[in-house]
Specification:
Elements lengths: L1 H17 L4 H13 L1 H24 L1 H6 L1 H34 L10 H10 L4 H14 L7 H24 L1 H7 L1 H5 L1 H20 L1
């Protein structure tokens, strides 16, 4: 029963951490609109594979990270310039995509989608402090048994929950293309703006 609880709790955490439209979700939509659903699903799998790693670091090294707060502080501080840089890259991609549309230039999708999804998800280092806070709260409140096996299935549940959300965004990418054409045409600007907002929020937190 503890193992089942750990897995279900992990699914809930994975969904909670990814349901809001953000960098990863919108990139899944962008990839699907550009290269098709099979590529979008593989890209989503690559992104979701990172979540068990991040959740595992936070849940199995809770005490160690708590005893070394400078690590989390460093992650939070480095996240600000990293988010700004990535945001600027997406904005530049937006201008390039706009110029290509005007010139009617269609660039083929290059690179392995799973590798690209994995790399994109790895850049979201703020998930580690988030999962640390959530995991600590779940254990102290008794929602997650403080035992090795429930914790192990919990981290896989987090990855599965994130995958469900990414697959949902990928599946609905056509809906975005039909109903939200302005959004999909300017999705790089949307992602860049979201990253800039997130960077500003994070900067205020570390000040």
């Amino acid at each position: 029963m503890d193992i089942l609880i750990g897995f279900l709790v992990g699914i809930g955490v994975g969904i909670f951490a990814t349901w809001f439209p953000g960098m990863l979700n919108m990139q899944a939509v962008s990839t699907t609109c550009r290269a098709g659903k099979p590529t979008g699903y593989r890209f989503s799998i690559g992104m979701a594979l990172v979540f068990p790693i991040q959740a595992g670091i936070s849940i199995f090294f809770t005490n160690w990270l708590t005893d070394h707060p400078w690590i989390l502080d460093g992650l939070k501080q480095w996240a600000v310039p990293l988010l700004v840089i990535i945001g600027l890259i997406f904005v530049l991609k937006g201008f390039t995509a706009r110029a290509n549309r005007k010139a009617q230039i269609i660039k083929p999708y290059k690179g392995g989608p799973m590798k690209r999804g994995f790399g994109m998800s790895m850049l979201n280092i703020l998930n580690i402090p988030l999962f640390l806070a959530i995991g600590s709260w779940l254990i102290t409140q008794g929602y997650l048994p403080d035992l090795p096996w429930p914790k192990l299935v919990y981290i896989f549940g987090v990855g599965f929950g994130a995958l469900l959300v990414f697959f949902t965004y990928t599946y609905m990418a056509d809906w975005f293309a039909r109903r939200a054409a302005v959004l999909t045409r300017n999705i790089n600007f949307v992602i860049g703006s979201l990253l800039m907002i997130l960077a500003a929020i994070q900067a205020l937190r570390v000040m």
